[in-house]
Structure formats: structure tokens, C-alpha cells
Specification:
Number of strands of chain A: 8
Number of strands of chain B: 0
Oligomer: heterodimer
Largest interface: A-B, 41 and 40 residues
Strand content of chain B: under 5%
Strand content of chain A: 5-15%
Structural class of chain A: alpha+beta
Shape of chain A: globular
Number of domains of chain A: 1
Strand order of the largest sheet of chain A: 1-2-3
CATH topology of chain A: Cytochrome-c3 Hydrogenase, chain B
CATH superfamily of chain A: Cytochrome-c3 Hydrogenase, chain B
Structural class of chain B: mainly alpha
Number of domains of chain B: 1
Number of helices of chain A: 15
Largest sheet of chain B: none
CATH class of chain A: Mainly Alpha
Helix content of chain B: 55-70%
Order of helices and strands of chain B: HHHHHHHHHHHHHHH
Order of helices and strands of chain A: EEEHHHHHEEHHHHHHEEEHHHH
Chain lengths: ~375, ~375
């Protein structure tokens, strides 16, 4: 702004409701935006439209019976949710998981991460207006991954596969050879996808420098997962607080520099590559043996509380469980990464245009099932 | 003026539109008026089919293939479905404006086709200001769009309408500049003369002009990557958010009819219109028109959408200077180039186009993340 006062028509801000029913709010999220023409001055997030009372429901069920509820948290990454919950109960009850089950869990969780990152990258690009083409390409590859989940548990979306102390059934004999082929295919696909998009001038224009989240702010808001790592926060629970058997694998944590939408996109693409590396190593090391520990049908963990967390595709997914030594949890609380990653949304979008608001929101990557529970 | 002499030679004399129809001039008018409307509707159905099947092919899916052989009757089925829908007028709407808007938007599209010859001399009117008339008429459509945006009484509609008006006003200028390049070669604004003098299609003589015109035309008719007037990820459906039933169908029709009309104008200006060997003229015209339209479908599947400020910057900082430079170079060529070597001129023009676009894209970025209003 120069010293000469610009002569403009007087304008007044207006309120625009984006959501709860809107093509790109990834569910039923609602943003009450105060707009100045095209520019977003302020937003007020409103959520709760998908509240199903899962935490209360869980208190009425047995410890094992709540696993299907975790599927409905982040319905795109149901395996990760199973994993986190089972880890928490095992920590509480002191159950030792057999080696083979640990490997199966890691393989499954990492393919799940690849699958969900494909969805997110695809839908981010479609939020940038790319007419669904990247989305459809990414979903096509995700379908191949879903076939593998189908192979191990017969389900494609809500798996209910992992159990306290292991997994529900062993992987079939053809699983690992087929997975080896899939990993090769996916590597080629990721390279192709990346080449098509990373130098696209319009994508760069739409995402580079847009919606910057600084490192300090990411830490202050408790943001985790790819969003935090894109801002340069070197925090990945698989390295920083290794759970299960993640210390045994050699992989690196991709970090972004500026924390803009483009970095978040890049970090996700790189993470899929690292996940494939983990899967390859796990496939070589997987031993034979039992797939589930000797656990009674009705578990009664000792009275007490526990917090266990994993690096879910979206960030730190934690379960806080309180037991009173009965067959049902006394308190069943989730720390959902989707909800907490939204904490910085308001600061990220202020001053940007409505088109950027959608792009930034898409790059944060939320699932409403997890936000509202 | 030598190169112009080359273009003017060739023995093709453009006849005036035949006035000696049985029954006189009125019959000629009536015949062409009916023929244009019918042909336009049929071509729109073809365009919808090409678009949906083309999108399907490019996105590794099938596209509509259930209705009729190869899904050819899909546009008919769409039309029947949409006719049976209820016509909803929102309570906040200005009823008259809301009602008038689709009509106002549709009329200019038919008017454009009045001056486009499909065969030698086969046009409703051979205006001696033909191409100027096209430019003038094509921007009237934005009045209809703005009426729709304002009359709907919805904020999404209004945002879409504002974007449309801004885009149309900006992109008229590079569009006209690139037309002037052609007109310098032909020495006439009449479409029949423009075609008669394309011994070499002007896409070869004016490659840069063609690209500028194509980009400007895409922005003017809301085709991707400039389709932010109906950006479904951001503002739902832009100006037609509040339309349903037949009125929505009118806007849908306008969208494709505009694309067809602009393809026809591009065919006339740059691809030699109906001229071509072996095939009958009207078939050449159709083939070229749909080839241009297919190119639009192709860009739509490939590119993300630009933001509103980037759209403006692209018009004023990229297309406008290049249009001026192109005009300057063309004027010099028309003055000094001898008529013996037209093919060398083509090579030079392509080299100039490549160099200019390369140099300009070094200076000009689509504003990576900078907020420019």
C-alpha cells in the first residue's frame, strides 16, 4: 500500500456458509466464513453433524466388542484405528503379541497408509479443481490395495481385522507374493503420478506458498502427522516413540520446509514411498508362527488407565482407556488427529481467497468420522 | 503487402450469400435460422457425448455406455430426465430476472453461429464486419450469467457471476488482439473472406495468435482451467447453483453451445473453416469444430483450476503483452515479407512463438502464493 489513499467503493463483509453440505468439505464440516468479496477474513468452524456417540457406545460393550466401533472413526483408515486400539488394550492388560502377528499388523497398517495417502493426494488435487482425473487415478490404485484387505478379512472398508493380542485370521498363502507384485506396481504408479503433477505450473501456483503453517504454530497447536512434518517438525511416532516392531525397519521421515500446501502434498507422496520400503522389509522378515496370543474371550484388564498412540496416516491417533477390571471399558477416549489438526485452520486461511480456503482445507486432510466421533 | 497477395491469390472467390432463393431473402433467413438452432442442438448432444465419453477414457473409466449403442442416447436420456424435474425458484430470488437469465444467456450463442459459414457461402448472413460481430455478441452472454447470479439471491451465485464478468471483460482484449493478427493477413473482417484467404491455415501463419485466442476463448466460455465461474469445489455451481429443471438445462445447453460456437469460430479463423481436400466441406467443418472441442475436453481433464487473481494476472500480464507483440510482428511481416516464401515464414513464426512463450514464462509466474488483488 502506498501513501496515496486508494479510492474504492465502500464494501462490507458478508457471511458465507460453506458446508455442512458442500462438494468439498470432505463430509459434513461447516465453515462460517466472513468474506470480503473473494477474500476470507475470518472463519468459524462448526462441527458435530456426524456425532454418533461412539465413546459412550463403547462403554456398553466388551473390550473386544468395541473394535468395530474403531473402524467407524476414520473410515478411510480403519486398520490403523484397529491397531491403535488393540495396542492400548494390550498395554493395559500386559499382553504379548506373537511375532507373526506384529509383522502382519505392520504390513497391513503401512498399506493402509499408502491407500489413504492416495485418496488425500487425489482429493487435494480435485479440490484444486483438477476435474477428478488425479482422484480417479489414485482411487484406481487404492482399489488394488482394498483387494488385499478383502483377501485377509473379507471386508473392503470397515475391516474389524485386528484383535486384542494379534489378528483375527492368518494371511492366505498367496498374499505375500501378490503383495510383492503390488509394491512394484505402486512404485511405478507413484513415480508416474509424481512426474505428472510436481511440475504442473497451475498446481504450483495454487499450492506453493499457500496456507503456510509455521513450525512454531504447528507445535503450539498440537498438530501431528504429515501436516506437522510438512512444516518441518521432525515428529513421527514410528521413530520418536517406536511401538510394535517399527525399530526393526529402515526408513526415513520426509520433511517439508515451508509448510505450505505443496509441501504437505510432497510429504504425503514421499511417505507412500517410505511405507512401501517398510512393507518390502517386513515381507522379507516375516516369521511363521501363531497369529494371536492366548487371550480369553472376555478380557478383564486390571483396573487402571492407559494411553497408547500410533502414527496413523493423519497424525497421532491415541486411545485413552480406563478399566475398572470389568468386561467393558469404564472410559474410552480417542485423541483424533483430524480434529486436532484443524486447530490451526483459522490462522492458515485468514487473508486467502475462497479457492485457497478449499485447497488448504483439503491439504489438511480430515475425515469427519474422526472429527465428530 | 506481398504475403497478403499470396494469400489473396488461389482462385477462391467467396460468393456473397445467395439472395436468389425461391421466394426471396426471407426464405433464406427462415431456413438458416431453423437450421442453425436444430444443428446447434444436435451438435450439443454430440459434444456432451464426446465430453463424457472422452472424460471417461482419459480418467480410466468407461463413461456412460448404458443408453443406446455405445451410450449414444445418453444426452437424450439426460434431457428427458431434466425436463421432468421440478422448477424450483428460491424464495429470495428476483423472479423475473431469475426467469429471464437463461434466455438472455442462450440467445447470443445462436447469434454467433449466424456468421459462421459451414460451406462455401452457406451462412445466415455474410456480414462484412463478421468477426467483430462475433466478439461483440459473444460477450452479451455474460449479461445473462450476471442476471442469473444476481437474480438467484444466493451468495454462491453472486460470487460466480462476479467472477464471470471479471473474466469476460479481461479476456476480450487478448482475444481481439489475436483476431487482429488474422485480420491483418486477410484484410477483411468478413468470415467468408477470412476463409477464402486461408490458402495456408492461419494456425500455421499465426501459431501464437491461435494459442492466445484459444486461451482467451476458454476463459470466455468457462472451460477449464479457467472454469472458476462454476467451480464446483469452491462455489458449488457458481451462477447456476439455484437453478433446477429446464432452466438448469438451458444453462447446461449454453455451456456446451458456447463451446461449440467458439470451436466453430476458431475453425473459421485459424483452421481454414470448411476448406480441405477429399471430404465434403460441411464434413470438414464438423471435423475441425469437434477436433477443437476435443482439445478443450483434453485440457479439462488435465489441468487444475487457476485462482481468480491468477486468472486476471494471466490475462493482463501474459496474454495481453504477448498479443501486442504478436500483432507487431505480424504487421511487420505483412509489410515486408515477399510472397515467394510463405513456408519459411511459417517456420519463423513457430520459432518466434516458442521463444516468446519461453521468455515470458521466465518473467511471469502465476504468482506463486502471493496474494494479488
Amino acid at each position: 500500500m502506498t501513501t496515496t489513499q486508494e479510492i474504492t467503493l465502500p464494501t462490507e463483509p458478508f457471511v458465507l456458509n460453506i458446508g455442512p453440505v458442500h462438494p468439498s468439505t470432505h463430509g459434513v464440516y461447516r465453515m462460517r466464513c466472513t468474506m470480503d468479496g473473494e477474500v476470507v477474513r475470518d472463519i468459524e468452524p462448526v462441527f458435530g453433524y456426524l456425532h454418533r456417540g461412539l465413546e459412550k457406545l463403547a462403554e456398553e460393550r466388551t473390550w473386544t466388542g468395541t473394535i468395530p466401533l474403531t473402524d467407524r472413526l476414520d473410515y478411510l483408515a480403519a486398520m490403523s484405528n484397529n491397531f491403535a486400539y488393540c495396542l492400548a488394550v494390550e498395554k493395559l492388560a500386559g499382553i504379548k503379541v506373537p511375532e507373526r502377528a506384529e509383522y502382519i499388523r505392520v504390513i497391513i497398517a503401512e498399506i493402509q497408509r499408502v491407500a489413504i495417502h492416495f485418496i488425500i493426494v487425489g482429493s487435494f488435487l480435485s479440490d484444486c479443481g483438477a476435474m477428478l482425473t488425479p482422484m480417479v487415478y489414485a482411487l484406481r490404485e487404492r482399489e488394488r490395495i482394498l483387494d488385499f484387505f478383502d483377501m485377509v478379512c473379507g471386508q473392503r472398508l470397515t475391516y474389524n481385522y485386528m484383535r486384542i493380542g494379534g489378528v483375527s485370521q492368518d494371511i492366505p498363502a498367496q498374499f505375500l507374493p501378490a503383495l510383492e507384485k503390488l509394491v512394484k506396481k505402486l512404485k511405478r504408479f507413484i513415480d508416474e503420478f509424481d512426474v505428472l503433477l510436481k511440475q504442473n505450473e497451475i498446481l504450483l501456483a495454487r499450492s506453493k506458498g499457500v496456507g503456510i503453517l509455521s513450525k512454531e504454530q504447528a507445535i503450539n497447536c498440537g498438530i501431528s502427522g504429515p501436516v506437522a512434518r510438512a512444516s518441518g517438525v521432525n515428529w513421527d511416532l514410528r521413530k520418536n516413540d517406536p511401538y510394535s516392531i517399527y525399530e526393526r525397519f529402515d526408513f526415513s521421515i520426509p520433511l517439508g520446509e515451508t509448510g505450505d500446501c505443496y509441501d504437505r502434498y510432497r510429504v504425503r507422496i514421499e511417505e507412500t514411498r517410505q511405507s512401501l520400503r517398510i512393507i518390502e522389509q517386513a515381507m522379507q522378515q516375516i516369521p511363521a508362527g501363531k497369529i494371536i496370543a492366548d487371550v480369553p474371550h472376555l478380557i478383564r484388564p486390571p483396573a487402571g488407565d492407559v494411553y497408547a498412540h500410533i502414527e496413523s496416516p493423519k497424525g497421532e491417533l491415541g486411545f485413552y482407556l480406563v478399566s475398572d477390571n470389568s468386561i467393558a471399558p469404564y472410559r474410552w477416549h480417542v485423541r483424533p488427529p483430524s480434529l486436532i489438526n484443524l486447530a490451526a485452520l483459522r490462522d492458515m486461511v485468514r487473508g486467502w481467497k475462497v479457492a485457497d480456503l478449499i485447497a488448504i482445507f483439503g491439504s489438511i486432510d480430515i475425515t469427519m468420522g474422526e472429527v465428530d466421533r | 503487402m506481398a504475403i497478403v497477395n499470396y494469400l489473396h491469390s488461389g482462385g477462391l472467390t467467396a460468393p456473397a450469400v445467395a439472395a436468389d432463393w425461391p421466394g426471396g431473402y426471407w426464405w433464406h433467413w427462415l431456413f438458416y435460422a431453423v437450421a442453425i438452432i436444430v444443428a446447434l442442438l444436435i451438435m450439443v448432444m454430440g459434444a456432451i457425448y464426446i465430453e463424457r465419453r472422452g472424460l471417461g477414457r482419459m480418467q480410466s473409466r468407461l463413461g456412460p455406455n448404458r443408453v443406446g449403442p455405445f451410450g449414444l442416447l445418453q444426452p437424450v436420456a439426460d434431457a428427458i430426465k431434466i425436463l421432468l424435474k421440478e422448477n424450483i425458484v428460491p424464495s429470495t430470488a428476483d423472479r423475473i430476472v431469475h426467469f429471464m437469465a437463461p434466455i438472455v444467456a442462450f440467445t447470443p450463442v445462436i447469434l454467433i453461429l449466424a456468421v459462421v459459414p459451414v460451406m462455401n457461402g452457406a451462412a445466415l448472413a455474410d456480414l462484412n464486419i463478421g468477426i467483430l460481430y462475433v466478439v461483440a455478441v459473444s460477450s452479451i452472454g455474460s449479461v445473462g450469467v450476471f442476471m442469473a447470479g444476481w437474480g438467484s439471491g444466493s451468495k454462491f451465485s453472486l460470487l460466480g457471476a462476479m467472477r464471470n464478468v471479471a473474466a469476460v471483460v479481461s479476456y476480450e482484449i487478448p482475444m481481439v488482439l489475436s483476431i487482429i493478427g488474422v485480420v491483418l493477413f486477410t484484410g477483411s473482417l468478413a468470415t467468408s473472406q477470412i476463409i477464402a484467404r486461408q490458402n495456408i491455415p492461419f494456425i500455421l501463419m499465426q501459431p501464437l495468435g491461435f494459442l492466445l485466442f484459444f486461451a482467451a476463448a476458454c476463459a470466455e466460455i468457462n472451460r477449464s482451467p479457467f472454469d472458476l465461474m462454476e467451480a464446483d469445489q469452491e462455489i458449488v455451481a457458481g451462477y447456476m447453483t439455484e437453478y433446477s429443471g429446464m432452466r438448469f438445462a438451458m444453462f447446461y445447453l449454453v455451456e456446451y453451445a458456447e463451446a461449440i460456437a467458439m470451436s466453430a469460430v476458431i475453425t473459421t479463423l485459424f483452421l481454414g473453416g470448411w476448406r480441405g481436400p477429399w471430404l465434403p466441406p460441411w464434413l470438414w467443418f464438423l471435423v475441425k469444430t469437434f477436433a477443437v472441442f476435443f482439445f478443450m475436453v483434453w485440457t479439462r481433464t488435465t489441468l487444475p483450476r487457476v485462482r481468480i487473481d491468477q486468472l486476471m494476472a494471466f490475462a493482463w500480464k501474459f496474454l495481453f503483452p504477448l498479443g501486442l507483440i504478436n500483432l507487431f510482428i505480424t504487421a511487420i511481416q505483412v509489410l515486408v515479407w515477399p510472397d515467394s516464401l510463405p513456408w519459411i515464414l511459417i517456420i519463423i513464426n513457430f520459432a518466434v512463438m516458442g521463444a516468446l512463450i519461453l521468455i515470458w514464462s521466465k518473467f511471469f509466474r502465476l504468482g506463486w502464493g502471493r496474494v494479488q488483488v
